Amino acid sequence: MSPTLSPSTIASLHTLITTSTSGATPLLPGAIVLILDSSGSPLFTHTTPNLTPQTLFPIHSCSKLIGALSFLQLLDRGLASLDDPSLISHHLPELWGKKVLVGVKETEAGQKEYVFEDRRGDITARMLLNHTNGTGMSFFNEELRSYLGADLASINEGTSYFENLVRSPLLWHPGTRTNYGQGLDWVSVLVERITGESMEDVIRGGFFTPWVYARGDERGVGGNGVSTSDGDFWAHSLKLGDGSFMQLPGWGESRVDSADAWPGGKPTCRAWQMDWC
């Protein structure tokens, strides 16, 4: 028997969403909720009335999906493995050689001294894909922000992605904890090193060209894009341990006007120049 939601559950969900998205200071600016069963049939839908087809949604980390698919294409071609640690030791020696940050102590001179221990267990591509490889992100992990210290302003996920990957230690032993971290970023580096191609060329050849998708904000594609922003679209900040905020750069918005855009040739596409994140 297919699962269902009771009328009282549906009513409670509607009330919860409405309460969370209304009033002078709503918890959320709006919400689109769709609950499906295992066969894909809808059990519940709700869209708050303040959202329209013109509402702009920032959708982040989209490259994680296409990066993972790029790796899985290599798996299908017999060029990669999910569980062979030699793939990581050979192609990602910077990651393979990392130790685990386990604490910090104060020296007699009053300086911070970070304590590390050797990694226990191997790192595999599967761990990179499912966020169990032991890495973190400065957006979410206070200990990583503390470790990067004054360099965080110039070496973070929004300014210098690869240097941030190289400088960041492991925060846990591989396979012992799930944490939203740098695994998919390392997957992109892994794909580039296996193929000897840039990630852009990999996804262009593996996805965009077969899909006959020629427009975009990628390098070398000018199109009819017209900049409509006065600077960063989403300049944001991190709250640090002492209560202060560190400003991070945002991503520039560009708007593409296309005669064949859906619906009716209206300018409906907005995109952001951003790193693999």
From TrEMBL:
Tree of life domain: Eukaryota
Stored PANTHER family: BETA-LACTAMASE FAMILY PROTEIN (AFU_ORTHOLOGUE AFUA_5G07500), BETA-LACTAMASE-RELATED
Source organism of the structure: Pseudopithomyces chartarum
InterPro entries: Beta-lactam-related, Beta-lactam/transpept-like, Diverse_Enzym_Activities
UniProt domain Beta-lactamase-related: residue ranges: 48-211
Lineage: Eukaryota, Fungi, Dikarya, Ascomycota, Pezizomycotina
Pfam families to which the protein is assigned, alphabetical: Beta-lactamase (PF00144)
Protein name according to UniProt: Beta-lactamase-related domain-containing protein
